[in-house]
Amino acid sequence: MAHPAGTRAPSPRNPAETRQRILDAAGQLFYRDGVRPVAMDAVAEAADVTKRTLYYHFDSKNDLVIAYLGHMGERLRASMGKAAARRAGGPLERLLGVFDDLGVRLADARFRGCPFLNTAAELSGSERVRAAAVTYKEDMRRWLEGQLAELGARDPGPLSEQLMILTDGAIGTWLVRRDPQAAARAREAARVLIQADLPTHSAVATRRCPAPRRAGRRSLQRRHSR
Known about the structure:
Helix content is 71%, strand content 0%. By secondary structure, it is mainly α. 24% of the residues are buried.
């Protein structure tokens, strides 16, 4: 709701609600426009708070950026968890589903890439930003590693790193080439890597029906004698 010039709606009595409003507003602006072009005045305006209130919750823009990355990480983890819970099947389906979900995100007109990669590239000199990006990426890698271990992969650690490279590579490919099949191709590459790392006797690795049993000589003789 708009307010007359020079006025602001009263902030909620609960400071947590105000902080969340600021994070939501900053998240939309930072993700859409980048961190550097967005001034703190714009964040305050979008959150419908005064700059004094904004700086009460965040000492500096850098603190707000770190909080934004933490907020985005929580949202993405929750989204991935819900998607995995909805998906039928075992760990293979959950692993490949990561790329299905990525395909949906790439098709969204609001998609601007990975917020962690974007911010780490934009603020490459900030160790705090890089550490926040590493924290999220490592959380995701550990989740992949856990699924791979449950599936029976021989080397779930290195393989989880390869799958991370595929997800980030698909995002980069889409951003540069706008290739609508980027996530699907990454999914197929992930399937090949996963199957190659599973024991050869694994039914999940082959997904083939058993070959028909050849009838023995005695069985054939009995059939002909009937």
